[in-house]
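Good morning,

Both structures are done.
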Amino acid sequence: MGWLDQLAEHVEDLRRAGRLQQNGCSAQALPILDAVLATATDRMTLAYALVQRFGALINLGRVAELAAAMAAAAEAVREVPDPYLRGQMHAFAALGAHLQSHLDRGVTHLVQASRALAAVPDRDAETAWGWHDLAMAYSYLGFHGQALTAIEQAREVGASAGLAPEVFAAPGIRLRNAVSLDHWGDTDGCLRVLRDIDAELYRYLATDQLRPGSRAVYGYALARRAALGEPTEADATRWLTGGGDSVRTRDLRHLGAVCLTIAAGKPERALSMLEAVPVSAEVLGAPEPARLRSICHARAGDHAAAHTADRYAFRLAAQRIDQLRDGYLDGVAARLDAQETQRDPHRYGDETLTDPLTGLPNRRALEHYVDALLARGGRAAVGVCDIVGFTTVNMRHGRHCGDLVLQRIAGVLARVMRRGDFVARFAGDEFVLILPGAGPHHAAEVSRRISAAAAAENWQILVPGTPIGLACGWSEVGANGRGLSAALAAAAGSRKPT
């Protein structure tokens, strides 16, 4: 029994929508999924349909709708803790992050998808397609080795479900690998991979196993070889027709026509075609149009312009490596901040009094601390800080990135506190600061330090396009008999951006 067979409703509708998506017909699958969502009541059915709808929107390039679709799918999957659904959702989320140029977020989803799919106990067709979609996500984000490993896993799981290995040919993975080699200057390596792709086309034609969605990929591999000056026996134009309604297919057709125009000895015309129709930077990578311009200039005899275009293509390829390095360093910094707060047992107590995400004292620890302070007759300034922009972070970037922001803010607050001060995570994105013996002047100084430290953080690397700030308000505890609840209410009411 396959995974879909366990659903209570609309199994055949969902199976039909899945076949349409596999054949590159997401526009036809979308109304079927919408009809299921309008009538289904079973939570598992709804979660599956929402995840597949998210995937259809990605295939169609409807970027403006992705944030809402992902939020709906993620919420539904959380209510149905199924590892296959979680893996499939994260694989699509990685592709969505790629379309939105959020490389660091995409990498996070890749890891989560791989772990979830590895935990699926059943080796059925749906799980095999989950590995296939993860392989696509790895490939689009530039992790070609991991993509090949994931597609082999798809073939292995698919074989257990009776699917032929040819179903998971995934020529797009090797095509992106080939053009990536060319972007880095290894044109010979690119041609070797393109030859392998073209040889595979004939093998699959002989067995009648060619998927419609792969037509444009094979066509582009043929056209790209021709643009590099290596003639092919097959007619690339034939394969660049049909193949579905995805953004990928549309762009491959256009760039394939550019390559064939170069091969026909019309480089000026090819340059005009490149300028006339913009293509997504996410299909074959941002460097591909620049590399094609270089080939055009070289064919036209303008070697200075060809060299300039090649350098630009190389620089675009290197930018992704820089983004990965920055994201890696930023994630490590957030984890170190959390670890530092967890290493101070005298300050933070045992686990029952500690917030597990940030390592800071929790609400219970805060209440114990203030009770002891008041019992000694002490008084303190009380600050309530919350994160400006945190809701947007969770909507645009996902809860994992939200967790990283919380850890980073916890590290910022812990670093700027005076010796003897107390900082706790109170709830959600709200933090409470206790400054024993401090008055308004000290509180204002702490606010200035918090503002400077938060502004110095590189939030664009962690959550691109989402500004992060802190809003703080201050009150006093112990003054005129004021207790913690009243102090917190007063501080929360006076919050303003630091």
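Second structure follows.
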Amino acid sequence: MSDAWIDINLDAIANNYREVTQQLSPAARVMAVVKADAYGLGAVPVAQTLQKLGCPAFAVTTVEEGLILRQHGVEGIILVLGPVSAEQMAEALTGDLQLTLSDFHMLREWETVAAGLGIEAKVHLKLETGMGRTGFFEKEWGELAAQLKKSPHITPVGVYTHLARAAQRDRAYTRQQVESFQRGVNLLEEQGFAGLWKHVCNSAAFLDYPDWHYDFIRTGTLLIGHIPAPAFAGKLKLQDPWVAKARIVSLRRVPIGTFVGYQSIYRTKAETQLAVIPVGYADGFGVQPHFVPQGVWDFIKIVIKNFLALCRIYIGQESVILQGHRVPVAGKIGMQLTVLDVGNLPCETGDEVILPLRRTQANPRLLRQYWSEKRLIAKRHIKEGFLQSYPEYP
């Protein structure tokens, strides 16, 4: 058994899916976003769980992610949200993936590849309305319709856009985006492209704008048990399916004044116990994304935090949960070993701690270890006559 792993509760995923579908407009369906290995939960078991509940569509970022789902028996619509090169087209088309068409270069290349294979390429048209990442600008929509008519192997089946500020309380920008999107849909319909599946809602927009659920809503955040922003708290009864854990692998008592870790930035203030866990920044522990200050007050807080750190006063110091108690990291987080100051808590080696890992930054080995161990458990149960088969993932 590993000393560091991630526990996944697929029943919580199922609960969250049901919560979403209860607030879904009658004509809309869920497109479950399982990109980045389902936000670190394991795309295959998550998609398999949702498929059993009737989820008809899934969204990923890359062709590779989509093909992995197909290889593990995931059916229905699988939409690749990111750009796809001509080199990936053959695999994507033979894997029955639907693709996002977002520029004219793709359109020309895809028509050539699809024609060579004699395969129809089903695509969703991405309209750029204010995200500023990928998609056809409004001035290009007329030309897009014209070029599609000259591309017999490219078959549009959907049209969508990506909302940039749906989680913010100022709704003006989001409304502008949807109005722009609707102009694009109207133009396409006038040019003969009617009946396309429409989807604009991410998790935040799904909760705030039921009139825009259209044919699909794209949600990932809600399915993994997170709300998009504090203002949405209480709108759904979500469950958290993800817990990162580690075991204490070393424990010793040290006297007051003991220095801990690189650069000796931590010094014990009393006689205490130091516990070592086999997790570090190589596993994503303590790794934080870079946030741009959203105003002067945000900037001031960052400056104050860094100044206090210079004085060896650490605000927001990393910590873990041990027996229901929050215990701090002692000193710097190591690459694969981290020291905790557990004080006088009664504990011993082998005890579990809960880690505050960010899901998408956790080392995938922790998740692989979890599924490998579940597979071994299932094999043992088969041998003992409790199960008929064991999971195929990973």
